[in-house]
């Protein structure tokens, strides 16, 4: 069997290693450059590879192709593979054939990283031998090759779910759905929603789907489509018989006639969206039979995720907050919504078809100045030019932070929450967040 891996990043290299271990003839091809640390791993494992090109003769003879999530379906090599009817799958799908461990799969437009890390924290503190993979950390395939864990919490993007045929999580979580990555779904929101719901398509009556019952896109889809999994909703507004809800500033989760109670002010994470993330993670922990005392303790000592509403420093009584992970409008909505002081907002990057209208009330209420940080800021200027008093365009993080510092007064917050992808000026949202932190530290 010939396995061709497209993409030499984390998921590609992990798949190549697992494929080789399972006796496939493996070839890896990346149209860009492969990072040196990954090259070393490929050489060490004697896996043939190429970079900055796709040699068709070495690719179109595959029995199966694992396509990295970052490669769009419209790329020429993918089109040619489809013409030849060569199966194209995701890393999760490939790795899953070689294991029967229990997985918790978590997807959503926002909150999935926090929910994934929090869920992993709860299960690990509860004594389970549990791994963390998917869109985060070391790839699932690589970890399956090493065979260390009895269960996994997987953060799954819509791109990873696009390549799923048979994979099913025992517990699936959909944190929320809002327009994102529409450039990859022909600007058709319904295609993106369908991609998210692939997480439950192979589930059976013995499996669970945990979801946000306040989310219109989710409840609308569920009202029109039948699923086999047991539904476990969570909500900030409704009282639920089965699932998680809020009463008197307290989270109640009721699962299989077992009730768990936790006052909101004891959560280590702040903000309404994190109450939802905590509800989702708690529900998973209850379904996995983790002790209530452990859940309570873990919810109160969890350290948040880097680049997600991360408090960097307070300088001259101005708080600097790094929310570089906010790569879409909905994530920035949560960030602005959690601001309690006048805010200088650093925003911009590669726009993925953003509609800034939903941010308007929050910007009017909370934002005193906007610093644009992108190659093309025209949409942001058009949206908010008349709403804030001051608006400045910048093209480097150091400049953006210096200007923000000048605009901020005692008691204000400087918030980096870009609402856009980072690839115009940065390598990744992590690179963007690190540059922000460095710039703040050198003020």
From TrEMBL:
It is found in: Cytoplasm. Gene3D superfamilies: Mur ligase, C-terminal domain, Mur-like, catalytic domain, NAD(P)-binding Rossmann-like Domain. Residues 307-420 form the Mur ligase C-terminal domain. Transmembrane segments: none annotated. Pathway: Cell wall biogenesis; peptidoglycan biosynthesis. Keywords: ATP-binding, Cell cycle, Cell division, Cell shape, Cell wall biogenesis/degradation, Cytoplasm, Ligase, Nucleotide-binding, Peptidoglycan synthesis. GO terms for cellular component: cytoplasm. InterPro entries: Mur-like_cat_sf (IPR036565), Mur_ligase_C (IPR004101), Mur_ligase_C_dom_sf (IPR036615), Mur_ligase_cen (IPR013221), MurD (IPR005762). It comes from the Bacteria. It catalyses: UDP-N-acetyl-alpha-D-muramoyl-L-alanine + D-glutamate + ATP = UDP-N-acetyl-alpha-D-muramoyl-L-alanyl-D-glutamate + ADP + phosphate + H(+). Cell wall formation. Catalyzes the addition of glutamate to the nucleotide precursor UDP-N-acetylmuramoyl-L-alanine (UMA). PANTHER family: UDP-N-ACETYLMURAMOYLALANINE--D-GLUTAMATE LIGASE. This is UDP-N-acetylmuramoylalanine--D-glutamate ligase. The lineage of its organism: Bacteria, Pseudomonadati, Bacteroidota, Flavobacteriia, Flavobacteriales.
